[in-house]
Amino acid sequence: MRHLLTIAILVTVSFGIVRTADSDRESIIKSVFIEKFTRFIDWPSDSDIENDSVPFRIGVYESESFYDALRQSYSRQKIKGKKVQIRILKSHRDGEKCDLVFIGDVSEEKLKNLLNFLEGRPVLTISDRNGFSEKGVMINFVEVDGKIRFEINDEAVKKSDLIFSYHLLKLSR
Amino acid sequence: MNGFKNLSIKNKIILIILAVTVSTYSAASIILIIYARAEARDDLVKELRLASRLTGGNAASAIAFDDSMAAMEFLRSLRSFPTVAAAAVYDENNVLFATYRNPESPRVAIPENSPIANEVFINRKYVSVVEPINYDNVNYGYIFIIADKTPIGKKTAKYALFTALLGAVAFGLAAALAALLRKPIADPIIHLADAAGEIKESNDYSTRVLKRGEDEIGKLYDDFNAMLEMIEKRENEKNAAIAALRNSEQKHRALFESMAQGVVYQDSKGSITSVNPATEEILGLDYGSLYGKSLSEAIGKAMNEDGSNLDKEMFPDVVARRTGKSVKNQILGIFNEKTKTYRWISANSAPYFKTGTNEPYQIYTTLNDFTDRKKAETEREKLNKELIDKNSELEQIVYVASHDLRSPLVNIQGFSSELQISIEETAELAMGLDMPESTRKELTEYFEVDIPVSIGYVVSSIRRMDALIKGLLRLSRLGRAALNVKELNMNILAKDAARAFQYLAQNNNAELQIEDLPNCFGDENFVNRALGNLIENALKFLKPDEPGRIVVKGYKLDSSSIYCVEDNGVGIKEEHTDKIFEIFNRLNPEASEGEGLGLSVVKKIMERLDGSVWLESEYGIGSKFYFSLPNSTTKE
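Structure tokens for the assembled complex are given below, as produced in the milestone run.
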């Protein structure tokens, strides 16, 4: 069943690639990657991740385009076996009720406020801006030889209660 | 296998031990090598699976994030497994995602699509495994590893070499042990075989083998010895039996050859197979003319006891063969061709049967020639008859004579008395007459001395003569009187007799004693008289100057009761003992009274009662008169 589901997703993704522009395609791949990251990451058991009535909450901070890509990808697709709820964060405080926050094109100050706010909380932070990894985002998408790869900030990961799989760490730049 | 049968026991044992060792060792070695090979293969497969899981696990995220470069990098870690010739990772759609080739290995084909997961493929040179790549229960694809198979072969070869070396050592050890261990089994058997061989050569069954242990071979030795003992015993018994048989045969042969009785053997058909010399003599025929014939065929003329012709079918051998029963004491007269006389024969024929058969296989006939005996018997019968006739004639004469003699004697007696009276009267008359004194004196001499003396002699002679005649009459009556034989109580009879002599005994100063006597069979009057005569006889011959003692005693001996009248009288000289039973014999006529017939009467009575009388006496000491009578009615 899982295989079929995976195939269905891939098919959907392929159609998406064919129909949309490059940036859209990139966003779709990244949004798919997000689900894959969660496979290799464990949230603490005292967080809401274990509570099935609470959906997997993704907050998008300052990135309309990625919000759309996520909405497209996770209208039916589940993450960690749960329905996916996607919303746009107005302020960094909105990140409190999220399991994952995608950080878009934000100012350095906003980024700092957000990261400070989320520090110690079981919230995975992902971005796709050069240099954000060094600034404290856990996973940051980068492009290598025309392919989407990612980098991981070990320090940031260690500060959080999230546990990253060795498999994921190995693939990072 | 025949070759093995003929091997000596020690070589058999060595061969068996070696065969067992080699076969078990070989089997064990083969199993070990097969096992080692399987294990080496399993080890290799396990190693490959481990390698693929390790590598595959790493590849999960690479596939997830579509990073084939990373996957290749992970695959490169397989370099640490030099046997791995190549490897590949396939995505979840079985599409080749990343590959690895060992630069040291020859190029091997990598399938475009993933082979079936969890399968192990083995061909002549390579082993390959396919493992799924899973992470957290999600399948990401498959990893394929193909490796050189040579480690299996190498390991197997190592084991084979090792077992071969070990086998060589084991074989050597087994050979050495077999050579040592065969001794306790093979040696006793070889020893036994040698002993048996020696006994066969020497026939000496007194030999025994000495056992060395209590195992089955020890038991075999015991049994062998027991068998020898039995054979020895049988051999001895057989030899003794042969000797006894030979001895018996010799005796039998000597008897057969020398016996007076004729012996004839006939076979089942009645043909004579053997005769002894006596048969030839009796029949007047030699063996040649008897052989192969029956007796009836061989004998010319034969008759029955009554003189009638003997039918051929009634010959004893023919009857015995026909009836299957013995013929006993058949009397035949057979004409002897040599002496030209009839021989009287008593024949016995007996058929002999083998157990379970009805037809005799042999007839055995004995011929007893009693011609001479028959002649003698006839002669004796004739003489006996003459004797009896003479005896009765004699008794008649004695009776008649004595009876007839008594009448004149009575006359003589009567007239003698008359004569005496007449002479007395005559004497009276004569004495009254006148006559010269000389004449008177002479006459007185006649009448008073000479005539009375003469008449006295006449009277006493007459009396004696009368007694004699009476005795003779009694004696002759003894031979003729009817007997009334019955069982007699001799105690009563003897006491009655003794009472009759009591007065006489007292007068003779004698004691008469009767002891306990056994019964007997006889005529009461006769026995009474015989016993009375003996007691009277004893009283008559007591010593005049010594108190007499007469004892009657008796005892049983076999079928006779024997009685004895014992006295302490004068006894009888040995030369007279035969005479005293004769008629009119008195040893001392002057010293005793009686007619001298007492003991003759006793003898006669005993003869008539089937008894006998005899005496033992010692002159001057006493006599013992014995008589015996039957103590049962059955006569011998």
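Chain B touches chain A at residues 57-58, 60-62, 64-67, 70, 92-93, 135-136, 138-139 (CB under 8 Å). The mean pLDDT of chain B is 86. Further analysis is deferred to the final report.
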